[in-house]
Every structure is written in structure tokens, then in C-alpha cells.
């Protein structure tokens, strides 16, 4: 028997094995919601039995086998019901044997197609973004509803409703538990990558609350990205996203001061950056480049690599970053990309050039409530010596953000303009 507190072991095993178990069961019963219920039944049984019998040597295999037997019982019950409706008995029995064979295959596959199928189903475009986020964290991350709610600062019942609606939508639309056909793969993969990166970004720069970051979400997104890269090693954008997250995650230890206050990129102590994550990110970027032309995530990773390679902020190759942003604006145009390009241009060629780009975005509705827009404009104005205008921009940024740490940062920058 394995050692450890049974309750903690169950929680840890569920976090590690939930995707594989639910994915295998979903392939059997063709319903994500039912598959998760069966898996949860196995977890409850473990919580009842393991304190008495001890933790088994292979706790993940125990959960899988227990859930498998419950799934086969369910298939048999449905088969008997179908038989009563005059289905052929031989065909029905074949369905049971097929279900048994599928889970037996899953037991021999530590992480494989079942996890990939589940990820594509959880990120299906038929679901709204918030449903995809919640369902992915629930099914692929093994997070509880309470943990997801705490991470995104929304009420627990709201998250529960999103998950329930997402499962119901998948059932109502009869979304198959399978990988998309080749013709649909690029669009569907884009949805998966978007969800993973949204999870990472919410951890890296929290949109609300009193914490600048939520590193646990970054870790979860990184785990999902690494799994995806292992399952789809020949997809350049998968490698690009992993590279981007690895490099950005390397800065987490330097992004806050002793009191939890934000520390901006150019002010960070780069000796605190995680060199292992940087090396992993650069290796993933090299794999993406070897696979073909860089896409949006790969280009952002290349930009992040410019920062990672600079030993001190003054060594940053801002001209290369500005050029990469120009390419990114061509490949994936958006007002936010243009805003970031303005920052790079301002540092490469002077604040006046950067301000020209920002001012061309003044009428962009997508940036109207985006706190980074007045913050960037304020920074450029401050560098031009236009401190009264800069102060007002930083105040506007503070009014727009829902993150308390970020609000304090913007207000401090506004106050600093009064002494210039």
C-alpha cells in the first residue's frame, strides 16, 4: 500500500489523473457530464474505503478501474433498456465489450488521445468563453468549483452554473467525444490555445481583486500547455504558446516587491528570473521556428525571448521587438497589439513616435475601458515632459482597473507627476 493521508492522496491523485479518467469514460459513455459523475463516484468510494483499507499501490489505476466498472454497469443498463426496445441482443452485447476494450486501452496509455479529445471537447467553440474556461479547469485541471471561483473572483454558484450549462450545451449539440477532422483542426486548435492562454493571463495579470498575480493559474496553464505540446509535438503554435508561457512565467518571482506591490518589467531584478523556465522557453521557441513560420503565439514568444536574453533592461533590443510587433500586427491585427507596438516603438525610437501610434488608437472602442491604454499614453507623455497630461492619464487608468494592486500603482505614478 502507498503511504500518506488517504484524503490528501485522493485529492492529489484526482488532480493528476482526472483528465485521463474522465477522458476514457467519456469515450465509453459519449457524454462528458456523465463521465465526470462516474469518475466522482469512484473518488467518493476511495474516500470511504482508503481510510479503512489503506491507499493502494497504484491509486490512479484504482480510480480508473473503479470508474470503469461503474461505466460498464451503466452501459449494460442502457443496453438492456435498448434491448427491451427491440434492439438486437448481439449488437448490444458488442457495445459492452467495446466499452470494456476502450477503457482497458486507456489503462495502458498514461496520457494520450483521451486527454487530447477531452481538451478539444472542453474548449469546443459552441461554448462561450467563460464556459470553456471553467470546464477546462474542472475536467483537465481537476479543480473544484470553489477553487475556480476563487481564482476568477466570481461567486461559486456562478461557476457551478457555467459548468452545468457547458455540459448541457455539449449534450444538446451532440458534440462527439473525438478529435476534430483534419479540416476543422486549425480552428478548433485555436480555441484550445486561446483558453489555455486566457487561464495563464488571468494568473499572470489578475483582472480583479487585491493580488497582482495568481501563480496557481499560471502553473495550471503551463501544465496544460506542456501536455498539449507532448500530444501534438508537430504543431508550431502549440510550441509557440508553451515557449511564451515558460518565458513569461520565469519572471513571476520578480514581478512583486516585498509587500506584494507590482514591479514593472524594466524595474525588475533580473537575477530573480527563473533561468530553467527561460531555457525551456527558448528551447520550445526553437522547436516552433524549426516547424515553420511563427504564428501569433510564436511571435509573442520571440518578443518575450528578447527580454529574456537581455541581462539588464538597457540591453533590450527594442528595435527587434518593434519589428516583431509589426509582423504580429500583420498576422493577428488588434488594437492591443498596436498598443504594445507603440510601447516598443517609443523605447526604440523615442516617445514621440510611440505617442503617434497611441493617439491613432484614441477612437478604438475596444480600448475604451482598457486600463493599459491610458497607462501607456501616460508613460509616453511623462517621458515627453507633459506631466499634467500624464497625471490625468494615470488617474484614468486607476479608475478603469479592477485590480487593487494595479490601481495603487497607477495612482502612485499619477502622484509622481506632481513632483516633476
TrEMBL record:
Molecular function via GO: DNA binding; sigma factor activity
Domain RNA polymerase sigma factor 70 region 4 type: residue ranges: 120-170
Boundaries of every RNA polymerase sigma-70 region domain copy: 20-80
Keywords (A to Z) from UniProt: Coiled coil, Sigma factor, Transcription, Transcription regulation
GO annotation terms (biological process): DNA-templated transcription initiation
The DUF6596 domain, residue ranges: 188-288
Descriptive protein name: RNA polymerase ECF family sigma subunit
The keyword Cytoplasm belongs to this UniProt entry's keyword annotation: no
Pfam families: DUF6596, Sigma70_r2, Sigma70_r4_2
Gene source species: Thermomonospora umbrina
